[in-house]
Amino acid sequence: MEYTEFKQKLVSNLQDLIGTRYLVSVQKTDFTENLEDFVVIFDSSELVMRCSKMAPIYEIHTNHKVPPAVLASALKASFGIGEDSGSINKSRVFYRLENLEHVQKEYKDIPYQRFLDLAIVFYINLACTEDSIQSRRITNSMLRESKLSISDLMSLANKNTPQMFPYTLRPMEDAALDILDNNPSLLNDPKVRVSLMLMFGKEVGLIPEEEYTSRYVLSCEGNLYGSTAILYPELLG
């Protein structure tokens, strides 16, 4: 089956399986150097978007002759669609830091906890790869049905999140060089050029060590939700 026809059949089968609450489409993204097709599922009830690369799905179809209908069922299962809405797998609860104003305005029926000018939002990890995660936002109704509290979610997430997304701590110099390697156009920014001059001035001895403030970048492996690492218990200390 040609790729264009396969995409249409996969979307049609998946849409029929999961119903009108979800909107299924194929979108091109530029997350990588080349444009790639992703099958995207938008949950209009919980305002959650899930996606998966189309290329490996089509490869399974062509190499193993798996019909689009069967692959659509597998996608539905992998995203956890149709499972008990009140089921919270405690070992897969994690948190993210998000914009407080956006959370209060856009998210409905979800538990969250304020942190400075941000919001701690809780999720269930459905599937995780090296560079992406498929997750489901926890709602107040799920919380009630599971007889859990926000305090319970914080305790679970404090335990689970550092294991799911181990932190990384690197000197600013290393992080800056990686960023510039991926986006050389940043060199046009005067502030970036000044920072580089200071950085290399210290390295070659033009700036005394005592006059240079060391800076570090705290993130997570894979750079997934890196800001969340500041919540990890005792880590900043």
What is the gist of this entry?
With 237 residues, the chain is of the alpha+beta class. The protein is 38% helix and 25% strand.
Keywords:
237 residues; alpha+beta; 3 domains; four-stranded antiparallel β-sheet; three-stranded antiparallel β-sheet; 8 helices; 9 strands
Q: Using DSSP, what is the number of strands?
A: 9
Task: Give unreliable regions as ranges.
Answer: none
Distance between the termini: 57 Å
Largest sheet: 4 strands, antiparallel
Shape: globular
Rg for CA atoms: 22 Å
Structural class computed from helices and strand pairing = alpha+beta
Helices and strands, in order, run as HEEEHHEHEEEHHEHHE
Helix amount: 25-40%
Strand content: 15-25%
Characterization of this structure:
The protein is α+β, with helices and mostly antiparallel strands. It has 3 domains: 1-82; 84-164, no CATH class; 167-231, no CATH class. It is built from 8 helices and 9 strands. The chain has helices at residues 3-18, 54-64, 68-78, 100-106, 140-145, 150-164, 172-182, 190-203; strands spanning 22-29, 36-43, 48-53, 93-99, 112-115, 118-128, 133-137, 167-171, 216-220. The strands form 3 sheets. Strands 4, 5, 6 and 7 form a 4-stranded antiparallel beta sheet that branches. α1 (3-18) packs across α3. The longest helix is centred in the N-terminal third of the chain and has 16 residues, at 3-18. It is globular. The N and C termini lie far apart (57 Å). The model has no long low-confidence stretch (mean pLDDT 83).
Record the SSE blueprint.
Layout: H1 3-18, E1 22-29, E2 36-43, E3 48-53, H2 54-64, H3 68-78, E4 93-99, H4 100-106, E5 112-115, E6 118-128, E7 133-137, H5 140-145, H6 150-164, E8 167-171, H7 172-182, H8 190-203, E9 216-220
Antiparallel strand pairs: 1-2, 2-3, 4-6, 5-6, 6-7, 8-9
Helix pairs in contact: 1-3
